[in-house]
Specification:
This protein is of the alpha/beta class and 684 residues long.
């Protein structure tokens, strides 16, 4: 089987960025032309890295079924996400993984899931050297998968969706003893606590449990792809133009790696800057924390600093097994298919294990039993505007019309080299970052033009009581999507005390699309308007089609005018966001229909104030949920760092009251002791 794989890296000597498309199998090395036989040259795509630290034939990337693998064939070694892999042994990769090949950090992106025909292979450049021009790169053919963004969940796991579960599992209440008798369950498959999702929501819950005294061996984590808890989030950040050196644009008052939130990101960054002699920079970070947003721009950390801090904490608590002699790894890869209650007051999870494919085993489900579950699977789909999705389905054009959460680097490369017009749709945090990146491209090529297309424009900003958001040039400013009082103040208490219909009304009044009021970004908009390379258009889209110049034509109906207007552009970027409605996901659809679970007015899971899922009680067993899947419940900012930690704390309190095994209250001296362990990087 062949797959298209994108490899991207920065040249260590020059800093030049390279991004190329290859077809598997891919050979990576320094002198491939010299060491490969003629038949191997016909077989392999070749990625040549010129550093003398790279072996002549360093590694090979292959594809099998739905999985891709890398095999180290060198004497110099390879690290995948900072973990050294065993030489001459295939190691599974997921989209977004980073390969450390001596001085190179190579990012792997899987571009499609279907088999490529021989004709298509012949049309792809088979040899690419570092230093070669990237001007002629073929832009990737985007198909969504679990490791990028899901547009159509049913298209992601076709084999899994059609695979029937065993009869013993197809009941509302499953017998654990029967699973054992049929050889479907071993003692290692039974845990007290199971986190489903494997992302930041799972990480904050597991981190809290470990700090509350729960042992590593009592916990299992099922994740879809990257072992790093921030892997999917990092990929979405990078695709939406927030690389590791760029600052996050959403709420980051809390620290996912530190439930005490002291020292916070600003203090840590100020300390590093002061130690390096950058006293003004250090003072600026601290000033922002005290003066934001009235007298200073809101402080947010660099995404790379957040990820590095999470790495440290993940190692400390045993998310990664390398810190522990027992070799037990809480995290395991699994695509969750269904949950059933058991006859002994627990829950059994059926999941597909992709590692069995890697070992040549027959595709089948595995099972995991737990008494306390935590579901935090993140966003189910990209919110692709209907007219744009219809255009892509009709034309097959995935290059001119893209979602902001897709890898769309080819657009910026094209604009930088040739100029052109881009239509940006959406007016929130992601749209603001996309426009900032386009401004950076415009500085290289003055022929770049941005048309910011919105459906309607409000004459008055959102208002609640006497509080009102600030508006400027059509943008509505607020550091976060929700007022800060919803995070821990009177608004939070009011929302928690309200019933579901009242919560819906309050959230509609408090919410709305916003972006942070950053001085530099507001200057970009003002300059663009003045120089006419940024325009804001308001209208309802009537049609999206190709034009004769091989670009895009959008026909819009101007608001308040009975006039049809045509806009021509080279690209359209949809920055309207992501969705998380449970019925769009086969797993949630099965769970909701099996147990007739209620949904709240936002069509999300209905949860109690401690975030137990209503309808999933099973004797002493409990199921908790976190993240955007609970929007409309007792907390507003559920998809922020603080929101995930708030849910983890509330569920931990609930487990302490229920006298769950191994968990103890965190109070006074015990909290201080655990904080000191965190400071000194000792295990909980």
């Amino acid at each position: 089987m062949t797959r298209q794989i994108q490899l991207s890296w920065d040249e260590p000597a020059t800093g030049e960025h390279h991004q190329f498309i290859f077809t598997t199998p891919i050979a990576i090395g320094r002198k491939l032309n010299e060491v490969l036989t003629d038949s191997q040259k016909q077989q392999f795509s070749q990625a040549i890295l010129r550093s003398p630290q790279v072996s002549a034939f360093h590694a090979v990337i292959t594809a099998a079924a739905e999985q891709i693998f890398i095999e180290d064939r060198s004497t110099n070694g390879i690290r995948v996400n900072d973990r050294k892999i065993t030489p001459s042994t295939p190691y599974p990769l997921v989209s977004g993984d980073t390969l450390k090949i001596k001085p190179y950090s190579v990012t792997v992106t899987a571009l499609n899931l279907e088999t490529i025909t021989t004709t298509e292979v012949a049309e792809v450049s088979q040899v690419v050297e570092a230093g070669a021009t990237s001007a002629g790169i073929v832009a990737p053919k985007i198909l969504f998968n679990d490791d990028t963004v899901l547009l159509s969940p049913k298209a992601v796991r076709p084999q899994q969706e059609n695979l029937l579960l065993p009869d013993v599992f197809n009941r509302d209440y499953v017998s654990v003893d029967e699973l054992k008798l049929k050889g479907l369950l071993s003692p290692n498959d039974e845990k007290d606590y199971v986190a489903l999702g494997g992302g930041l929501g799972s990480f904050t819950w597991v981190d809290t449990l470990r700090i509350y005294g729960v042992k590593q061996t009592q916990i299992a984590v099922l994740g879809r792809g990257n072992v790093k808890p921030y892997g999917r989030y990092q990929l979405l950040c990078r695709n939406s133009q927030i690389p590791d050196y760029e600052r996050l644009r959403s709420g980051s008052d809390s620290c996912p790696d530190n439930i005490w939130a002291f020292p916070g990101y600003a203090l840590r960054e100020a300390w590093r800057d002061a130690a390096a002699g950058r006293l003004l920079s250090a003072g600026t970070h601290l000033w922002k924390v005290f003066a934001e947003p009235a007298f200073a721009d809101t402080y947010t950390p660099r995404s790379g600093d957040v990820f590095a801090a999470i790495d440290r904490e993940a190692s400390r608590i045993g998310w990664y097994s390398d810190r522990y002699d027992n070799g037990y790894n809480m995290w395991q890869q699994g695509y969750i298919r269904a949950i059933r209650k058991t006859l002994d007051d627990r829950y059994v999870i059926a999941y597909y294990d992709p590692n069995r494919v890697a070992k040549g085993q027959k595709l089948c489900y595995r099972f995991l039993v737990g008494r306390y579950l935590h579901i935090s699977t993140g966003y189910a789909a990209a919110r692709f505007l209907p007219d744009l999705l219809a255009y892509r389905n009709r034309t097959g054009d995935t290059q001119s019309v893209v979602n902001a959460y897709e890898n769309h680097e080819h657009i910026y490369q094209h604009l930088k080299q040739r100029g052109g017009t881009v239509i940006v749709r959406g007016e929130g945090i992601v749209a603001s970052r996309i426009i900032q990146r386009l401004d950076e491209v415009h500085q290289h090529n003055a022929d770049v033009k941005i048309i910011h297309l919105v459906r309607t424009t409000k004459t008055e900003p959102n208002q609640f009581g006497v509080a009102q958001r600030y508006r400027e040039n059509g943008w509505e400013f607020q550091p976060y999507n929700w007022p800060k009082a919803t995070w821990g103040g009177d608004m939070r208490a009011r929302l928690e005390a309200a019933n579901p219909p009242e919560r819906s009304k309050l959230l509609e009044q408090w919410g709305g699309t916003t972006t942070a009021s950053r001085t530099d970004w507001r200057q970009i908009i003002q300059t663009g308007l003045k120089q006419l390379w940024y325009e804001r258009e308001v209208g309802e889209v009537l049609s999206v089609d190709r034009n004769q110049q091989d670009g895009i034509t959008i026909s819009i109906q101007r608001i308040n005018f009975n006039k049809r207007e045509i806009i021509d552009a080279n690209f359209i970027i949809d920055a309207t966001g992501v969705e998380a409605k449970p019925m769009d996901d086969p797993f949630f659809k099965d769970l909701i229909s099996t147990y007739n679970l209620p949904l709240n007015p936002f069509d999300r899971l209905e949860v109690k104030n401690d975030f137990q899922v209503n309808g999933m009680e099973n004797g002493g067993g409990r199921v908790y949920a976190a993240g955007v899947i609970t929007l409309g419940g007792p907390y507003a900012a559920v998809d922020t760092f603080l929101g995930l930690q708030y849910v983890a704390q509330r569920s931990a309190y609930s487990l302490v009251r229920a006298k769950a095994p191994g968990i103890n209250p965190l109070q006074g001296l015990s909290s201080l002791g655990q904080w000191l362990k965190w400071v000194t990087n000792h295990v909980p």
